[in-house]
Amino acid sequence: MFKHIFIGTLGTFILLQAIQIDIPEAPENIDPKKEMQAPKAIASLLKTSCYDCHSYQTTLPWYGNVAPVSWEVRSHIKEGRAWLNFQEWENYDEEKKQTIYKGIAKTINLRMPIPMYVSMHEEAALTTKQRREIKAWAKSHIREED
């Protein structure tokens, strides 16, 4: 009985590997002038804690290729890039930039980077002080409504 369950589970796991979610490849020529410009300290925090999901500088971990975990990882990357890609910043209009700044200010204390990511990438964890710094930086770019 145990042998049948094991073989069935293993077979299912192997079959799941055939189903993969692709993340868009990085363009061949990324224009560094389009990347968001932030003070050095903020840029460093963003690169360490945000760029894996919000830029083309994604380092896919080994488990990012093993289904079904890979589905979640790649889905987060696709969604992250769709909402914000720091390397495409200058392609956004002012309204989109304002939405992003507001989103950063609102979510940095709550759920960014996501806990699942931080559990596997301790270096991405932000301290309360670092979260406050990023929030203050984002808020300093939010225009007052007319």
What is the N-to-C order of secondary-structure elements (H for helix, E for strand)? HHHHHHH
Please work out how many helical segments DSSP would assign. Answer: 7
Percent helix among the residues?
A: 40-55%
Q: How can the largest sheet be summarized?
A: none
What does this structure look like?
This protein is an all-alpha fold. The chain has one domain (2-139). 52% of the residues lie in helices and 0% in strands. Helix 5 (94-107) packs antiparallel against helix 7. It is elongated, with a radius of gyration of 19 Å.
Give descriptors for this structure.
single chain; elongated; 146 residues
Summarize the structure.
This protein is mostly helical. It is 52% helix and 0% strand. The chain has one domain (2-139).
Give the SSE map.
Elements (H helix, E strand, L loop, with lengths): L1 H15 L23 H10 L1 H4 L14 H15 L10 H14 L7 H6 L7 H12 L7
Helix pairs in contact: 5-7
